[in-house]
Here is the input.
Amino acid sequence: MYLALINFPLLAALVVWFMKPGIRRARVLPVVGTLHLALVILALSTTYRLRPDAWFRLDPLGGWILLTVSVLFVICAFYAPAYLALRPERDYAVFGVCMLGFLSMASLTAASRHPGVLWVGMEAMTLVTTPLIYYNHNKRSLEATWKFLMLGSVGLALALLGTFFIAYAADLGGLGEPLYFDRLIAHAHLLPANWLKAGFVLILVGYGTKMGLAPLHTWKPDAYGETPGIVGTILAGGVTSCAFLAMCRMYSVVSAAGEGPFARSLLIALGLLSMGWACVFMIRQTDLRRLLAYSSVEHVGILAFGVGIGGAATRFALYHVAANALVKIVLFLASGNIVRCYSSHGVQAISGAFRRAPVSAWLFLLGFIAITCSPPFAPFVAIFGISSAAIQGGHPAAGAAFLVLLALLFIAMGSVILPVLQGVPSRTRVRTPYKDTVGTTAPVAVALLLALVLGLWLPKPLDNLLTRAAMLVEGAR
Amino acid sequence: MSINLLLAATMLLNFMLVATSRVNKAIQLAAIQGSVLAVILLLMHEHWAFHVVLMALSTVAIKSVVIPILLTRAQARLKVIQEPPPYIGYTLSILLSALGTGLAFLLARRLPLQAGVLGTLFVPASLTTLFTGFLILTTRRRALTQVVGYLVLENGVYLFSLLLVKNMPLLVETGVLLDLVVGIFVMGIVINHIQQAFDSQDTQRLAHLRD
Here is the structure.
């Protein structure tokens, strides 16, 4: 069952590779995405006994993340054919294979019970997403690809060393293979604290690089800036969520060992730093996509901050993984449409998007309102939960800083985005044939709707899943 | 004892790597370092079980044969011989790596090894190798030399993983080596594209994207 989650997209990737060239290659994506989502839901709703030595299992934490990634993938997959039809000069094979490879690796990461396998999944995910960043095949995207690859690889090397440190700690504590997370958590008190702490620092730096926490985020603006919106969505909502999961897995071991306060102070510091850094670079940002990249830096900062506060905030941080992913779809895809319209992602070149591409522009505006955590969208619920937990939970200063930064971020982002949408399109703009169609806007609207529904109503099964996932992050068994 | 000597040798190789300005030599040094790691692996085991020998052989094959050949080929095709001046001068780099070595020893004192481990220098050697790789990666301008830096960085991680080789399953170890090969392979492809697009692989030209 869990193996099917991993193998099925890989098989589909193989099929796409050997298909005849043409748009049909892109049409495979929505089919595979839908089936994958159905499989994830099936896996989450059925409970059955698993052999204790199984390498893969979808626990609530992995399940929550994979559900998010799968929904994100489905929406992107439905957007893909319409988008790719606008880019007939590109070969769809590499795109399709890499997208499906990403889905497979996300499943592997989410379902792995072992830190080594988790790491292999993250590394493989970096490699399959690399060709996606080079999608535009120009010098700028090449530069972005190189930075992404080098920084990602170095980060993952550090994460691997951190994983080895924790494995060595387990060895010192008399814990042999297999080092499943649940076993590590159960025997966490046996692990020597200094090795555990050193390991966690390395893992935080390593997976933090993949998440894009400041100051390890430098690949992010370049990578997001030079890729199509759809790839940006996969990176900002998918890869970062998986990296966050990897970080949470290790955090739960450290937390169960009683070293939680040490890890939490690091997470709070990095979280606030990311938000502040993002704010500085958002002010007077001249590139729409880089703006979104900094928004992504901000939101992974919120995730780290939420787990750092702990308690109720952890639950809201996990909730924010889904909220952030949904709204990121809206922002990246809608801005992708706008960028296509004006054939530029420089802010100066774009104005009057409301007139030129009204549907995308409205979706983008609503996405902006949602991502800056305004009610009634899901991110608001997350922010409200995290900040009130921070203030009630003995971190009033951090909570206040968090709220101030959010307000500043709202102003910074709004001052860049509103001029893009309002006004009249410049007469000297590059004319493009792009028009909003159902294919390029309906998936975006669905994502926005989901973000709205999630903000108003969390279904009971999801609520349970989330609560159990949060308990796992906190180191419960 | 001999293990400690070999660990010291990897640290010496680190200094040589930082000091060299020739890409060819850097590739060779990294390859030698890879072989030293394999020898350490063998010396750590009194009885050479099948999987230990297999791992040592695959380490040599990947770190000292396949990757160096891939890199040398790329180098020959791209006609890179002399490294352009790095962002940080060679003297300063060597001083920095000396400083890093000192820090690694300090840090290692706080991370005690299991009683009875033969090579006591594992942690400092691993951390210095990691640091050396990082230094090369960040201060050199040629994409190819940066890949060598990544290789050295991975050597550092691998060195530490030797402490775990008895307890980590083969699956994870193979995963690590496989990922390394694929990683370097993908980097090679990207380098090729850089060469074609920019007619050079000086990464200083990769500086269009900024805020």
